[in-house]
Amino acid sequence: MIRALGQEEELAPSVRVLLVDDHEMVRIGLAAVLDTEDGIEVVGEAGNGKEGIRLALAYKPDVILMDLVMDVMDGVETTRLIMEELPDTKVIVLTSYLDDSKLYPVIEAGAFSYLLKTSRASEIAEAIRAASRGQSVLESQVAVKMMNRFRQPKQNMKKAPHEELTEREMDVLMLVAQGLSNQDIADKLFISIKTVKFHVTNVLNKLGVEDRTQAAIYAHKHDLAVD
């Protein structure tokens, strides 16, 4: 069943979670916040899809938090292979991407829930507990996109500029669209201000816009921003 974020739920004891993400600082941050949550235990961390499969088979976690864009093996293929071996494990996608080229393939591969990396820690923990009870959680914008897919005729469109962004650049774009400062973005993503400035410059160049305001407008226009 599909449920909305924010609803009250009962805590499920000892939900065993595996983290699969190629950014070490993201894994460290997730592990730190999840370790403070009642009834959730992080049993392992993998830096790419192939390692994620190995640890999934070794630990047989209840829930896997899965990044989508990774070296060696991406999240779509990793999810598909894990589902073939561990059909009872629930894969929660945790990504920066909302575009169709990544959303629908990973759901078809067996992903159980779909969240954005801008989700609050409490929302991620809630989704983990919900998954352990067999309840899927979709970010509101994901649910809207899935509904719109069946309402609008398919069109052949050239590749959009934002599809050229790396996952980290997409992280930065969404946070810029929320009005966060460089310092806020650095704190949120566990990176330096210098690195934030580097990514912002790349985002502006790839989107073909002149400043942060135009980048934010672009993000909202293309449903990339989280309100």
Question: How would you portray this structure in words?
Answer:
- The mean pLDDT is 87.
- The protein has two domains: 2-149, Rossmann fold (3-Layer(aba) Sandwich); 161-221, Winged helix-like DNA-binding domain superfamily/Winged helix DNA-binding domain (Arc Repressor Mutant, subunit A, Orthogonal Bundle), CATH 1.10.10.10.
- The chain has ten helices and seven strands.
- The strands form two sheets. A five-stranded parallel sheet has the order 3-2-4-5-6, with helices on both faces. Strands 1-7 form a two-stranded parallel sheet.
- The chain has 227 residues and is of the alpha/beta class.
- It is 49% helix and 14% strand.
- Helix 1 links the parallel strand 2 (15-20) and strand 3.
Total number of helices: 10
Order of helices and strands: EEHEHEHEHEHEHHHHH
Q: List the domain count as a whole number.
A: 2
Strand content: 5-15%
Low-confidence runs of at least 5 consecutive residues: none
Strand tally is 7
The N- to C-terminal Cα distance equals 25 Å
Strand order of the largest sheet: 3-2-4-5-6
Radius of gyration, taken over Cα atoms and rounded to an integer in Å: 17 Å
- Sum up the overall morphology in one term: globular
Query: What is the name of the CATH superfamily of the largest domain?
Result: Response regulator
Q: Largest sheet, if any?
A: 5 strands, parallel
CATH architecture title of the largest domain: 3-Layer(aba) Sandwich
Pfam family, one: GerE
GO molecular function, one term: DNA binding
Domain HTH luxR-type: 158-223
Domain Response regulatory: 16-132
